[in-house]
């Protein structure tokens, strides 16, 4: 029996992989959109996160906690190298975390978010705060007194271990990014435009200091009551020997931002920043030398417990750990991190994802485990389709076509006689299928891919996605609003392009005569007359959309910056769901009561359609 749901979005165009990194000052928007609650999304790959991580803390027992964008909290237990995502308590970005003892800790974030834990980071609760300004740093001295700082000169103080907070006058409207206690009463905060604030009464009152620089300072730390360091933009390292009264610049020979500094004793200190940079000192910050971190990603936070156990966190869920005082670092990120551009499921538990560097991943348990498959290729795959759990085809750049007859355990090469970049593939059964390329050609097969026939679209514009409703009826979409339709199984194609010029990247069928297409700048087009006319639908977003799938009355569209839209009325209206990621999502597939979205940096999300949401499956 023919599979009646054969379409979801294809992949990104040739050069759309431009990574956005946390800039240390104002990355992204606070997650405050009016999301609906039809779908609950969870991260499946990579683990523990693909979101940027912004702060970390290591407890003396060796357990550790890190926080990041969209309310991300991840944790590793003492003696466990595996980090696990924790239940999300907020949708706001979290920026920093600090612990008072082995169990009590606080993290802070955008829109005045304050979370508190009493069980070592296993669970967190919201704490009412006195401000809606973004909070960027938090630190404690002893068991009771703590300070948090943030945008617009925000300074908060607690005297009860973070249970309650009061806002203190700071005397500045400059954004503050870092805070540290030199002693019980001496506190220093740093921020934009080289701002330094000092307190001599434990954070109750503040006065302006001088850093001698005019660019942002992102972090400050003290080795003892007198000796400390601050770091910031343009490779800035400053050192103080008088508790922050004056600062002396240190030579880093590095021009890019330094994000975080910490001390692990009176002599040993560490700095991390852009491009995976890592500095260390063994003389209290008089001199600094670079060491290998093993990564090139932005590193945003560093924490130590004692002189040996340390953690570094950064862009795209990066977690590094050391047990030897930073002599060596080991990654704690699990799973493939290549960009993923296509996903397909043949049943609720069995599916595949494909992308860059010859990557094909397979799951047989609904995504609890994604296993890399050996494709013997380094190609950038852009489409994957299985007609049954054993028979599938993957296509990509350089005219690559590979086919499997055993679920992906082994693959063999096929050829369509072209070196063009294939951007999508669909099969209507084990024998009959089609793929499209960026030169505007549709290639069809009726022999399981043994031979392919090139079908001209009559256009030289890129074709970026193809879908079929049944063995006869299909649609291809592409550059500059290109829409093509076939009712002959792909032998002949009719141009249905309208006056639109927006690139279209995904297509999905609702019925034989109704379909959806998605593309750049939040474009969603809908037809009810077999493609005779395509009407724009308000997506409620200007984000680029890359993939779409539809099943029964429910449709999902995904795109840049974690955009995930849902419709329950056959595409007439759409509303945002909270995907929990900032990664670009490039393809989506509905499988039973679950939805799978894939994208940049190996991101795989599983969305569960919630009971009571009113969605009929």
Report on this structure.
There is one protein chain. This protein is an all-beta fold and 617 residues long. Among the domains are: 50-124, Thrombin, subunit H, CATH 2.40.10.500; 340-609, Methylamine Dehydrogenase, Chain H. A 4-stranded antiparallel sheet has the order 1-56-55-54, with no helix packed on it. Strand 31 (351-355) and strand 32 (360-363) form a beta hairpin. The two termini are 20 Å apart.
Name the features.
single chain, 617 residues, mainly beta, Thrombin, subunit H, Methylamine Dehydrogenase, Chain H, four-stranded antiparallel β-sheet, disordered N terminus
Question: How many E strands?
Answer: 56
CATH topology of one domain: Methylamine Dehydrogenase, Chain H
Strand content: 35-45%
Q: Which superfamily, in CATH terms, is the homologous superfamily of one domain?
A: YVTN repeat-like/Quinoprotein amine dehydrogenase
Report the average pLDDT across residues.
92
* Unreliable sequence segments: 1-32
CATH-scheme architecture of one domain: 7 Propeller
Shape: elongated
Helix content: under 10%
Question: What's the end-to-end separation, in Å?
Answer: 20 Å
Q: Sheet with the most strands?
A: 4 strands, antiparallel
Radius of gyration: 26 Å
Task: Compute the number of helices.
Answer: 0
* Class by SSE composition: mainly beta
Specify the CATH class of one domain. Mainly Beta
Strand order of the largest sheet: 1-56-55-54
Give a short synopsis of this structure.
The strands form 14 sheets. The protein has a four-stranded antiparallel β-sheet with strand order 1-56-55-54, with no helix packed on it. It has a four-stranded antiparallel β-sheet with strand order 2-3-4-5, with no helix packed on it. A four-stranded antiparallel β-sheet has the order 6-7-8-9, with no helix packed on it.
